[in-house]
Amino acid sequence: MSIAVRAGDLVFIGGLTAVDASGNELHHDDAALQFKVVYEQMGRILAAHGGSAADVVSETIYYSCTGEEYSERLFPHRKEFYRDCDGPSVAGVQVAGFISAAIRVEVTCVAHIPKGRPASATSPFHIERQDQQ
User: Fold this and answer.
1) pTM score > 0.85 for this model?
2) Which residue from 48, 73, 78, 95 lies 20 to 30 Å from 117 (Cα-Cα)?
3) CA 95, CA 82: separation in Å to the nearest integer?
4) For the segment 67-109, what is each residue's pLDDT rounded down to a tens digit?
5) Residue 28, SS3?
6) Residue 92 β-bridge partners
7) Is the dihedral of CA 85, 91, 96, 97 positive or negative?
């Protein structure tokens, strides 16, 4: 199982939540800090596949905080992540909760990254690549 799967020129990144390299949940009850961690993870995963924020074409954000908190505290982290590009199509879904009460946000996305583009150096955060034909 992998958090990112390549199918041709598309990379599907699913279920990003704020966890450390060992899978421990981070920033319990702080959706904004969790969102920041999720975008840091997304950046490393994209880089491992030779991509960047500019390659993301679709994104779904699941959040359990209020719409007001999402707009005021979370959205600035998204804006910062996509600061050098237009950003992808996006859907935001307010949910009643997640599998763990500590999780406040989860993000999935699809990126268009042509096969063969060299991967960038990654951080110590483990990124598993899985290519499918």
Assistant:
1) yes
2) 78
3) 24
4) 999 999 999 999 999 999 999 999 999 999 999 999 999 999 9
5) coil
6) 61
7) negative
Helix ranges restricted to H, 10-74: 31-48, 67-69
Q: How far apart are CA 6 and CA 130, in angstroms?
A: 6
Q: Which of the four pLDDT bands, split at 50, 70 and 90, describes residue 21?
A: confident
Sign of the alpha-carbon torsion through 47, 53, 59, 60 = positive
- CA nearest to 108, candidates 49, 74, 62: 62
Counted residue by residue, the chain has a size of 133
Residue with tokens 């007001």: 68
What phi and psi, each to the nearest 5 degrees, are found at residue 12?
A: -100, 120
Cα angle 96, 75, 65; round to 5: 20
Residue 73's contacts (CB-CB under 8 Å, 6 or more residues apart) are 31, 32, 35, 65
Residue burial 33-47, b: 16+ Cβ < 10 Å; e: rest: bbbbbbbbbbbbbbb
Three-state SS for 71?
A: helix
Instruction: Name the CA radius of gyration of the chain, rounded.
Output: 14
